Amino acid sequence: MKLIFRANDYLLTWNLLYGASISQKIHTFKQKLWSTYKKQYNAGNKDKEEMLCDIKNYLPNDDTIYNLVFEQELFDEIKKETEKHRLQLMQLWDENKKQLTKNIDDILRFQLAKEYNIIALHPKMDTYLISNQCKTNIGWGFKKDLQDKIMTLTNIIYAIVKSEMFEFEKENKAYKEIVQAILELAIHNELYTRLSGKSNYLDGDPSLTFLKRQIYPYWLMYLGCDREDMTHYMMRDKVVFDIEDYTIEKELKKVSLYEFITFCIKNQKYIIRINNLEII
Asked: Is 94 exposed, middle or buried (0-12, 13-18, 19+ CB in 10 A)?
């Protein structure tokens, strides 16, 4: 898997126009533009999907609104700051790509696309843009991107994996909490822990905490832990359970994340049964 960090004036402009305003000056400009060019402004709102599906070659049918933005000095400033952010994200990827690629393959055990285009957005836009129809192109820019660099990479990978698993999640809609809990265990917890060297298993969506704790012993089996390894992982992650209460499912270390989720769904009646898991 390779991440390519790109710039794209049209996607940047689309989010400038239709996303939250990042300054009062931009908000005022957008209001003026909308009042003068209502028809074109409203029509452009649907462009995002087409852009993301052909990010390299996209040209709007009507570029009136886009050209008006391109002519503004404020756009030149935003574009310059966005390019700086793109280079920072690219450097972050370059510094960690070998370790990240190895670990994501080991954790997921299914094939991602060979390349993903990460189209830089201004960090003050604080958002990401993605299409479940065109999973390899993602717009990305957050204020916190450089505060915890490993978390930023983890969040990008999470967005990629969640998009790749969209159809699977849709098919298992009745069990969405199980799917979400395991995705969080895989990416936000285990991947982050491996990349950063410090456990992140106590972080995440609070509504998934109980479910994640129930799945955790089987998650360790999926990671390939034998009974004697589990104490080490429990101490690392500050989650405790009675090992003797569990039969080691040796086959789990050979399956993909898709198959592990399916296993948890099929066996949820006996997986989600323990009430005495503890946080150290």
From this structure: exposed
Could you read off the pLDDT tens digit of each residue along the chain, which spans 280 residues? 999 999 999 999 999 999 999 999 999 999 999 999 999 999 999 999 999 999 999 999 999 999 999 999 999 999 999 999 999 999 999 999 999 999 999 999 999 999 999 999 999 999 999 998 899 999 999 999 999 999 999 999 999 999 999 999 999 999 999 999 999 999 999 999 999 999 999 999 999 999 999 999 999 999 999 999 999 999 999 999 999 999 999 999 999 999 999 999 999 988 886 554 444 3
Euclidean distance between CA atoms 17 and 43, whole angstroms: 12
Q: Which of 113, 192, 98 is nearest to 154 (CA)?
A: 192
Model-wide pTM > 0.85:
yes
